[in-house]
User: Fold this.
Amino acid sequence: MPAESRPMSVARNWKELKMADNLDRVRDHYRAAGLAERLKTALAVFGPEEERLKPEQLATLDQFHTRGLAATAELAKLADITADMSVLDVGSGVGGPARFLAAAYGCEVTGVDLSEPFVEAANYLTARTGQAAKVSFKTGSALALPFDDGGFDVVLLQHVAMNIADRPLLYREIRRMLKPGGKFAAFDVVLNGGDPLYPVPWAKTPAESFLLTAAATCEAIEAAGFRVLVQQDDTADAKTWFAALRASGPPPSLNLGVVMGPGFADFAANLGRNLMEGRLGVLTAVFEAVPVKS
Assistant:
């Protein structure tokens, strides 16, 4: 029976079950078994456990998106982040962007991620950098953010939306987090033409991947109560970055493979190929929260 012909309660339950299944698939992709121990072993190159680290020392390890730290720095600049702001990083991974923002701007940053191992790792790395007073993390879903309405000046979303099927709900939740006039800064992979090749960093198969075009992404965001301040196609910069990585030879010992496991290099190579072949693109955009139409 088609979903539209089912009783409302049955259709709703079916949608909720499907959403839960999608979340389980994504959570499994970022399971990261043994992550804490891998991090402790990898960070031994910097000295004993009690030695404080600088956030920039972790940049090759904790920026889980195309162009790494440079992309986070550019997005923060576009969002006009200042010291007096409260920032929410949705899909915060192991916490690299959050630690960078707190160190660079002096703002308070909260991260939320679906993966418990990532949140544990983020808290561990933040303790190692001595930033726990300014940076904190919670486990939670981007579709049911565990915070009160209107608590943040800026929300960041970097390479996260590709894992989320219900984009309208995602963007409504982000809108709910923001104060009036608050900003939403997004940096995501988008469909550009042709079917993507898998696996990629966010999905081993199409079952965990829910890509939209740049136009459809911005349309969905605006429908949730935002207006566009900045919209730019950063695909060319992403291609240049991947080309530079290939030319530079073997990756440093501290790389995202420590977090995601030895297969991550192949995932990243496929993302680079998808970009080079025009299958995927990269969108950078900043939006302002406006009153939601009733």
About this structure: Strands lie at 86-90, 108-113, 135-139, 152-158, 178-191, 226-233, 280-289. The longest strand covers residues 178-191. Confidence is low (pLDDT under 50) at residues 1-6. The longest helix spans residues 8-29.
